[in-house]
From TrEMBL:
CDD domains: SGNH_plant_lipase_like. Keywords: Glycoprotein, Hydrolase, Membrane, Signal, Transmembrane, Transmembrane helix. InterPro entries: GDSL, SGNH_hydro_sf, SGNH_plant_lipase-like. It comes from Artemisia annua. One of its GO terms (molecular function) is hydrolase activity, acting on ester bonds. This is SGNH hydrolase-type esterase domain-containing protein. The chain crosses the membrane at residues 12-34. Belongs to the 'GDSL' lipolytic enzyme family. The keyword Glycoprotein applies.
Length: 389
């Protein structure tokens, strides 16, 4: 979220993007072997699945797979220590929720749009950027604090990507190049995923009173809907939209903005901050329902990630985690020193989640039980507006 303080020793770390590119190229070779099909001996729902050819993702650090790293300088160790065994552009010790979604659909991990080294975009692209907000930065007095790659910028990047990739696809004869680019028909059949809004609330908590921050929510929702409508006008048809998580349970806020006794819930989270998130989620769900009625050729799935994350935090011990409001990285004040056992923690660095937590959350999202309508990820294209209640 507040990412600038994380970027240190940039000039000596730029070669990391080459490693990221190599990983993506390697995973692409696996993709070509299976010819884009899902791995049928692993996943359920194959007979009725939507067979998405690609994922286009928009969001913040919860799903950034390398945009900020490519734009402003690579992350440094110990990020990526658990799965990639080196920094991978992700604010975590390993994979993110979007990575597990890609695995579920049989894809290699999504390349960040801004990562030009060794990238393959046949299976989609990721426009999410750490620190970004729904609203333009100056709307929340975030100048020089949060990421300028806000949702409207991500939309602009997608539109440029779509036009330029189609131009190149039609102009070149090399099959090697074509195989790395989306086909025209892929855009209307792709899955469009969103996880954004947490930074808008984060900024509201820091820069203004909570009641004042709440007055900005309708504008946030309107901005979000405008992006979705423009994607629809461009041919997008299947949308998987996360609400925002329990920001009042993020260790950063619990520790740095500790609640008064009457503003603390039964597990120690800040009630008023979670209340702000719940109000955002209510308005978002109402808007998604409206969009489902207005854009009748589209399929919308509203995903209650708030409930899933809160369930994990409130029942951490039951699910094999410890210290649910603690963190692995920097717990002794040294931001470069991780704990010895990241898999036992929910929070990686006080704001972002560990790979173990992301995996648990992804498993409890992609089955559809936390969604409206209750359809799994693999069947999102079959969602109907009448069941978006």
């Amino acid at each position: 979220m507040i990412w600038k303080e994380r970027f240190t020793n940039l000039s000596t770390k730029m070669t990391l993007t080459l490693s990221i590119g190599s990983l993506l190229v390697a995973t692409f070779s696996i993709y070509m072997v299976v010819k884009g099909a899902r791995i049928s001996n692993i996943y359920d729902h194959q007979s009725s699945s939507c067979q998405f050819p690609a994922i286009y993702n928009f969001g913040d650090s919860n799903s950034d797979t390398g945009a900020v790293s490519a734009a402003f300088g690579p992350l440094v160790a110990p990020h990526g220590m658990t799965y990639f065994h080196k920094p991978s552009g992700r604010y975590s010790d390993g994979r993110l929720i979007i990575d597990f979604f890609a695995e579920k659909l049989g894809f290699p991990y999504l390349s960040a749009y801004l990562d030009s080294i060794g990238t393959n975009f046949r299976h989609g692209a990721n426009f999410a950027a750490s620190g970004c907000t729904i609203q333009p930065a100056d709307a929340l007095t975030l100048n020089n604090t949060f990421d300028p790659l806000t949702l409207d910028v991500q939309l602009s990047q997608f539109e440029q990507f779509k036009q330029r990739s189609l131009d190149v696809y039609n102009e070149v004869t090399s099959s090697e190049i074509k195989d790395r680019l989306p086909r025209y028909e892929d855009y209307s059949r792709a899955l469009y995923t969103f996880d954004i809004g947490q930074n808008d609330l984060h900024a509201g908590i820091i820069y203004m009173k909570e009641d004042q921050a709440k007055t900005y929510i309708p504008t946030m929702i309107s901005e979000f809907a405008s992006v979705v409508e423009k994607l629809y006008q461009g041919g997008a048809r299947t949308f998987w939209i996360h609400n925002t998580g329990p920001i009042g349970c993020i260790p950063f806020f619990v520790k740095n903005y500790p609640p008064s006794p009457d503003n603390k819930d039964q597990i120690g989270c800040v009630k008023s901050y979670n209340g702000l998130a719940q109000e955002f989620n209510k308005q978002l769900k109402d808007k998604v329902s409206q969009l489902g009625t207005q854009l009748q050729e589209a399929s919308f799935v509203y995903v209650d990630i708030y409930s899933v994350k809160y369930s994990l935090i409130s029942e951490a011990n039951k699910h094999g985690f410890t210290d649910p409001l603690g963190q692995c990285l920097g717990q002794d004040g040294d931001d470069n020193k991780p704990c010895a056992n990241p898999s036992e923690y929910i929070s990686w660095d006080g704001i972002h989640y560990t790979e173990a937590a992301n995996k648990w959350i992804a498993n409890n999202l992609q089955n559809g039980y936390a969604s409206s309508p209750k359809v799994p990820l693999t069947e999102a294209c079959q969602a109907t507006s009448s069941s978006l209640q």
